[in-house]
Task: structure prediction
Amino acid sequence: MSTIFGIPTPALYGQILIGLINGSFYALLSLGLAVIFGLLRVINFAHGAQYMLGAFAAYLLLEYAGIGYWPALIAAPLIVGASAIVVERTMLRRLYGLDPLYGLLLTFGLALIFEGAFRYWFGAAGKPFSPPSQLAGGVNLGFMFLPIYRGWVVIASLVICVGTWLLIEKTRLGAYLRAATENATLVQAFGVNVPQLLTLTYGLGAALAGLAGVLAAPVYQVSPLMGSNLIIIVFAVVVVGGMGSILGAIITGYMLGVLEGLTKVFYPEASSIVIFVVMAIVLLVRPAGLFGREE
Amino acid sequence: MKVLKKLLFVLSCSVLAQSAYAQQASDGVVKIGILNDQSGVYADFGGKWSAEAARMAVQDFGGKVLGVPIEIVSADHQNKPDVASGIARQWYDTEKVDAIMELTTSSVALAVQGLSKEKKKITMVTGAATTDLTGKQCSPYGFHWAYDTHALAVGTGGALVENGGNKWFFLTADYAFGYSLEGETSKFVKSKGGQVLGAVRHPLAANDFSSFLLQAQSSGANVIGFANAGLDTANAIKQASEFGITQGGTRLAALLFTLAEVKGLGLKAAQGLTLTEGWYWDQNDENRAFGKRYMEKTGRMPNMIHVGTYSTVLQYLKAIQKAGTDATEPVAKLLHEMPVEDVFAKKGKVLPNGRMVYDMYLFQVKKPEESKGEWDMYKQLAKVPGDEAFLSVADSGCQVTQ
Result:
């Protein structure tokens, strides 16, 4: 059996694939963050909580309404998006003109409140959630056993990432959005309802987090802490990719997922910090991030 | 003569008064601090549910000892030894706390027990696992209840080795508890003729274990030992079944897994797991009655950490009562001497190094179709006698045995 750095190649392929799977979650989450930051200039610290809300929405729909995984894949992001719209309308909108720090503090506070409330109601040990029967089981790829559900996660996340990117870069709505961030007053003068556009953007970003939450529910334990475990990493991904760069967030998400996966083989103790080491280096060499533009 | 009589009277009065004073607690209240993780991965393992159990013990004791009220305070140490030490210092120095209990997370328990030894205060650990608490770093005022890494290795490890699980690979949480649990279990597996093929150390709250699981799988092991706890173990088990590891015949040893985590994981994913606990609500009428009372208060069934905390508080209060004071030295002496006989432990004894020895049990998690109720989750497989489960003082490595 051939080896690379003392690791058998099949094992290495397996780890790269797993890195891609984890990268899918990073990409999905950092995508939402990048959309929100790029268009609203809000550093959305509630993103992890919104991801957690998505997972819990799926769990609660199943437990109390008998609504299964597939409908939840649509319903849960809608619920999370709607709750985010309420937050934007009642609170976040008042902070747009101010220092971004205020938005950060507000969303961070909201994240703590959501997490605390869910911990109070559901406990920290979390709730069980199984993959849908169509996606149960797995296939043997020769070098590893791939659970079908994980394969689905990679495909779903790729489709969503590309779709969102196309929506923002190639459609009329996306053009309005980008124009509104460049010069809101001018766009408004053309008769576009900018405040409504911003509300929708925040809702969309949060819905993406909610969707990632539903996708994650069968893989990770549905727990109030699931978001806070992930959010810091995702922020690092966004910073490495370049704040506000959507394509950067997606590519960096997959890249760092793979890097983290490989670290888990070569030096597992460092797997929780490797992303931050990369972040520090990138900030030193390219302060605007790999795909960011200097302003 | 009259003067002498008067003098005698005054003297005897003051002697009486003094002895009455000696019968009191030093500062008008006996305060017990429950310090544990109330917001992180171990918040259901112990958490505020332990504080509830402590309050039940105070209630059952009558709410007062030596005529002064008993108070329970609790705080969240966030699994950080520095945060915990800060809280412990504040409790001892300014808030008149007499003893600190529970102390989930080994690194925290070691730090607080060390600090308490310096300050001559009693600690009674139920939530942490490392045998170092009553071994290399033992304290004359430190007690360890409920379980430790050795008991888990003997119980869960022993059961698996006996059933043919002789090639082990460990997924170990990267801190004091993980090392201790991995070390104890490896030693035990090897002593029974088994092999340890390797181990990976993962950070606390690692979230995704698939990478580690694949490494374990490719090592050719037939048992994967999870030397971690709480949410980490739950996630690892869930993902092991996802990656077809259990279906492939490899067995999982959740070395530290309690009722709280089984409940969180669900019987579907947890079925068939073998685990070691010191207490289960459905073992006998006394336990069922206690479980029912606890359930009414909290809406959940307790695990061995919660009932263990109940037991430590009760035992501490009994010792104060018997000593007639809450001063550390005499109470610690009595805690070493008094047998433990309550809903948690039968014929429990405390070794000179502070280890409370009692019988533990090996359980298997039921299949969903076997379970008759929400909390009907265990089948009892065997009893692990206390003398086998816990290290003797000589083997513990403790030097401070008076």
